[in-house]
Amino acid sequence: MSPAWHDWIGWAAAVLTTCSFVPQAWLTFRTRDVRGISLGMYGVFALGVALWLAYGLVLGSWPIVLANAVTLSLALAILAMKLRYGRAGGAAAADHQRERTRS
C-alpha cells in the first residue's frame, strides 16, 4: 500500500525542517563558537523537540519521529557545547581547545 498524499507532506516537512537545522549545527561543531547561542532558548527548544518526538512515537508517525530524533540529537550536542565552551569564555576557550588538540 502506497503512502497517502498527506504522508508525503509530512516527510517533506520533516526533511526540510531537519535539514534547515544542519548548517547551524555544523558551524557550531566546526568553530565551537557558542557566543551567539542562548542557553535558555536551546534548553526550551530541546524540550519542545523531545515532546514532538514523544508525540510522534505515540502516533506512530515516522516522519515526526525521525525528524525530531535527528534534530534532538543535534540540539543536545549544541547544548552540551554551550555548557562546555560557553562558560569558559566562548571563542577564546574554543581556540585554546583547538590549540591543545594540535599539540
**What is the assembly state of the chains in this entry?**
single chain
Contiguous uncertain segments of 5+ residues: none
Determine the number of helices (DSSP H or I, runs of at least 4 residues). Answer: 4
Principal-axis shape equals: elongated
What is the share of helical residues? over 70%
Outline the fold blueprint:
Blueprint: H1 5-31, H2 39-59, H3 62-85, H4 91-102
Helix pairs in contact: 1-3, 2-3
Question: What report would you give on this structure?
Answer:
The radius of gyration is 17 Å and the shape is elongated. 82% of the residues lie in helices and 0% in strands. Helix 2 runs antiparallel to helix 3. The mean pLDDT is 85. The protein is mainly α. The chain has four helices and no strands. It has a domain at 35-95: Up-down Bundle (Monooxygenase). The chain has helices spanning 5-31, 39-59, 62-85, 91-102.
